[in-house]
Specification:
By secondary structure, the protein is of the alpha+beta class. About 20% of the residues lie in helices and about 40% in strands. Strands 1, 2, 3, 4, 5, 6 and 7 form a 7-stranded mixed β-sheet that branches.
Length: about 170
């Protein structure tokens, strides 16, 4: 396994949180999914709502609402040679704006960041682009951060969307 640790030179918690968000995107871009999964808390969630103001939970339909078990199954599928929709190979790239710290509580170790980004996915001769905003809910202290939830709000979540294969 090729491991690249998060930068240890982050002087403040806000800097370390921003480095965590960039590190998370890099792991997805380089398809280092096991390392990416290790960023999640045991009760972590990956959520793509259908509407920006949709309340959390699985009572309303979402594009994705996956806990760690479902994320592990998805990652296992990525490595399965019989996952025919992944042939030819699929690659994704995230172009992030600077993460914005929305909330941070040093006493409880709860933090929230907002990061608008563009996602480009390519497979064979086809390339798709989506615009989205990620809301990372992170717990812990620098060097021990865990993702409690990654909420990805597509700019056009209410539109007819193309099939995209990888996690944003």
């Amino acid at each position: 396994m090729n491991t690249t640790p998060m930068p240890a030179d982050c002087a403040t918690t806000p800097d370390a949180l921003k480095a965590f968000v960039y590190h998370e995107a890099m792991l997805l871009d380089t398809q280092r999914y096991d390392e990416w999964l290790s960023l999640y808390a045991e009760d972590g969630l990956y959520w793509m709502p259908l509407a920006q103001d949709q309340p959390p939970g699985d009572l309303a339909p979402s594009l994705l609402y996956e806990d760690l078990l479902l994320l592990r199954l998805r990652i296992q599928r990525y490595g399965n040679p019989r996952a025919h929709s992944l042939h030819p190979a699929v690659r994704g790239l995230r172009i992030l704006q600077a993460p914005q710290l929305l909330a941070s509580d040093a006493d409880t170790g709860q933090h929230q960041l907002r990061t608008p980004f563009l996602y480009v996915e390519t497979q064979g001769d086809t390339q798709r682009m989506l615009a989205a905003t990620a809301i990372h809910t992170i717990e812990g202290r620098p060097g021990q951060f865990k993702l409690r939830m990654k909420k990805v709000v597509l700019l056009n979540a209410d539109a007819s969307l193309p099939a995209f294969q990888l996690l944003l």
